Structures are given as structure tokens and as C-alpha cells.
Amino acid sequence: MSDPVVDARDVTYRHPDGTVAVDGVDLRIEPGTRVALLGANGAGKSTLLQLLGGLLDPSEGTVRWFGERDADVVRDRLSVLLQDADDYLFNPTVREDLAYGPRQLRLPANEVDERVATLAARFDLESLLDRPPFRLSGGEKRRAAFAAALSLDPEALLLDEPVSHLDAQNRRRILDALDELASEGVTTVVATPDPDLVPAVADRVCLLGPSGTVVADGTPREILTDRERLRAAGLRPPTLVRLFGDLDGVDGEDLPVSLSEADALLRRWRETE
Ligand SMILES: Nc1ncnc2c1ncn2[C@@H]1O[C@H](COP(=O)(O)OP(=O)(O)O)[C@@H](O)[C@H]1O
Ligand SMILES: [Mg+2]
After folding, report:
1. Ligand 1 pocket, Cβ-based, cut-off 6 angstroms
2. How many angstroms is it from 149 CA to the middle of ligand 2?
3. CA-CA distance, 203 to 211, in Å (whole number)?
4. Which residue owns the Cα nearest ligand 1 atom 6?
5. Residue 144 has pLDDT above 90, yes or no
6. Cα 39 to Cα 53: distance, rounded to the nearest angstrom
7. How many Å lie between the centroid of ligand 2 and the Cα of residue 213?
8. How confident is the model at residue 183 (pLDDT cuts 50, 70, 90)?
């Protein structure tokens, strides 16, 4: 069996001021899975994501990547996309930002150009390639940062709130890119405070409680239909669960957690009318 992409054992992180942001987390992520880290604001998602991505060192506990203890060894196999797109865009042009990683890997120039062209097409950045990143709109920056994170062709991608504050079109582009990555077998980990987003991005959900612990780990259905537990974690159940859950006779496996399940349920009802 192949090594897990990330294997975190009893990981705790204390900020310099003493705040415990992540508390005794055990988390093993297998290759090719789609995981959501779901939690309210301040639950510790961003801190956990940085620990899982090797950008922060745990105060206690250990993290291994593909079986290795040294995150630097696997830098080109795992990319992290933090919330602030500006962290990834620091070259004079978008083109150079996309080429930066592949050049660091010393890929031949024609291969670098090819990667840049593919990413630009995938994220609709062609007309923006020669612009300085600071002249991009918020949505364009997020697309460019996503493209830069993929420029190393990683086996795993960790993303912090990748669609927060995006308009419908930019959101769609990012979600389509995540679908495509999943179909290519890339492991994805998405941190989000939004239960409604989860079915679109994950097959497994780790629910973070208010104090940096993982309080539940299961399928989207298991986690998203457990209203009590979501409320205890400071979250509202997804819109579909609230809407259908209040109707007589809709519970258990009938309760839709994704739009496609809701659609199927409505069709069944129409047929039996
Ligand atoms: N640089 C920091 N110094 C001290 N505490 C911090 C720092 N960054 C975050 N925290 C605290 O750590 C906890 C988790 O924060 P964070 O990981 O950003 O949560 P989330 O991403 O889920 O909103 C919060 O209590 C937050 O206030
Ligand atoms: Mg955060």
C-alpha cells in the first residue's frame, strides 16, 4: 500500500502568544481522496492546513508526508494555497508567476512555456499573462494564485477557503478545476466554514470543534445531517438539510445533502404523485 499523503499524529500548535489553535489532532489522508476541513471561524482550520502543508512546525506531535519527516523533500509533490492570493504572486507578471515554480524545478524552457500555456487556458488567464499581478481584480488574483499552486503539477493540493467571497463565475471555475484534479487522482484538502460547499468538494469531512480538535470524521452525509453536532461546532446545517429535514417523512438516507440528491428526491416525489 502506498504511504499516506499526510499523516499527522497527535499534533498540537501553540501560537507564540500561547493560544492553542490545534489541539491533539490525528489525521491521515490517503492518496486520491477529497477531504474537507469544516469548522467555524477561529476553529483552527488555517493553522491545521499549514501544519498539514509543512508550512508550520507542530509544537507537539509529528507530521509525515508520503512517509517522509522532512517537508522540504516533498515540496514539489504537495502544494498549499493559502487564503491571501498575494502570497503567491510576487513576480513582475502573471506569466512569470506561473513559470516560477517550474523554473525552480529546472524544467526545460519549452516545458515551462507549455505548463504556463496549459494553466492559463484552464484558468482563463491568457489575456492577463503580461499584466502585473497587482493590476488584477480579486477574482483574477485568486485564479492566478490557484494556477501558480498547480504549476508544480502536485500530487496533493491543500486549499484554504478557495471560493470565499468569489462571484458565481469564479467560484464555478475553481470548483471545476477541483473536479478535474480529483478525476486525475490528485488529493485535495479544502478548509471551509461553509457546510453548503462540502458536498461539492469532499468525500470525507473532518469537523473541527471550537477549540482546535477534530470532533467528527466521516462522509459528508454522516457529518452534514448531524444537526446537533454541527451546532455544537458553531455551524448551521447545510441549507438542503434544514429545508428537507423539516418536512415530514424525510430523514435518514432520504435527506439530501447535495443538489443532485435533492434533485433525485424531487423527481421521485413527482413520479409518485
Ligand atoms: N498569529 C496568531 N497568533 C495568535 N493566535 C492566532 C494567530 N493566528 C490565529 N490565531 C488563533 O488561533 C485560532 C485558530 O485560528 P485559525 O487557524 O486562523 O482558524 P480558522 O482558519 O478556522 O478561522 C484562533 O483562536 C485564532 O485567534
Ligand atoms: Mg482561516
Report:
1. 15, 17, 19, 21, 39, 41-47
2. 18
3. 24
4. 15
5. yes
6. 18
7. 15
8. very high
Q: How far apart are CA 82 and CA 225, in angstroms?
A: 29
Please tell me the total number of residues recorded for the chain in this structure.
273
Please state, in angstroms and rounded to a whole number, the distance separating the CA atoms of residues 89 and 92: 9
Domain boundaries, the chain: 6-226, 238-273
What's the pLDDT tens digit per position in 78-115?
A: 999 998 878 888 899 999 999 998 998 889 999 999 99
Q: Which residue has the cell 485535495?
A: 188
Say whether domain 6-226 belongs to CATH 3.40.50.300: yes
Residue 209: CB atoms within 10 A of its CB come to 18
Report the pLDDT value the prediction gives residue 1, as an integer from 0 to 100.
67
* Mean pLDDT on 140-168: 93
Three-state secondary-structure class, residue 238: coil
Say if residues 15 and 21 touch (Cβ distance below 8 Å): yes
Ligand 1 centroid distance, CA of 17 (Å):
11
